[in-house]
Amino acid sequence: MITGHTPPPERALRAAADAAAVAWQQAVALFGRDELMATVRQGADETATTRLDDIVEAAVLRAVEPYGVNVLSEEIGHLDRGSDKTLVIDPVDGTGNAAAGVPFSAFTGALAYEGRFVEGLTRWFDTGREWWAHVDHPAESATSGRRALDGAIVSMIRPKLRADGFLAIARRAGRVRVLGSSSIEAALVAAGALDAALDPGSDTHRIVDLAAAVVLVERAGGVVLGIDGRPVRFTTDITGRWSGVAAATEELALEIIDVVQAGARVGEDRLDRLSPTIAPDRPVAPDRPVSQGSRR
């Protein structure tokens, strides 16, 4: 329950980042990797909530309660306080990195007002570096301005079930990185260090992964699109999945989308050619052991 003076909701995002940074530092000092990665419950996004996620999110929720804003987070889901402002947050982006001691994890979040992202902030835990942008303030950085994929510096989410899109981009890009924190990667696009950061078709991104990027990258002159070419819009559906593309320019984003989609089509054609053709009225033969000489 919120009582007494309510501070301006515009300060809620920074309060959340401050609380997340302190909680992350305390958690990694207190627990080992296995303890930090232990599952404590099922999150609202239908994935496992680790001890580290749980500790940091709890600290953030306590910090932002006085501001009276709604909260959308991957663990708790949508906390509706009846406000026209909503914090969309990922308290720990790059949980696996953070738990393992790999110095590449962050708090990331955005403030949405009446369904539009208006402020974004990503804070890199290990360095304290942060990127902030607001739609009503001049941009603090600019993208690289690159328009073509050939020779670009890109960061991608690692391939999961299918690697066709990943490989199609890797063949064209000048340099490829797999860093494990989509929010930092998108912030580096906004800062001009990377030309693009993307999920090449695995649908790993949720709205909490992309919310801050929408403000940071777009204010810096870039774009954030889904792999279907559509902009990323505010939603309270924490279970929805995207393959997001943050790019220095719209031209680069659209070329990346074309290349990923073409790579996926090639992969599907390849699978179709390799799949055995079985007549509808013909029984399927039982699996037989593969001989040592024919192992593939």
Architecture overview:
With 296 residues, the chain is of the alpha+beta class. It contains 8 helices and 13 strands. Helix 5 links the parallel strand 9 and strand 10. The strands form 3 sheets. The protein has a 6-stranded mixed sheet with strand order 4-3-5-6-7-8, sandwiched between helices. The longest helix is centred in the last third of the chain and has 25 residues. The protein has 2 domains: 124 residues, Fructose-1,6-Bisphosphatase, Chain A, domain 1 (2-Layer Sandwich), CATH 3.30.540; 120 residues, D-Maltodextrin-Binding Protein, domain 2, CATH 3.40.190. Helix 1 packs antiparallel against helix 3, helix 5 packs across helix 8 and helix 6 runs parallel beside helix 7.
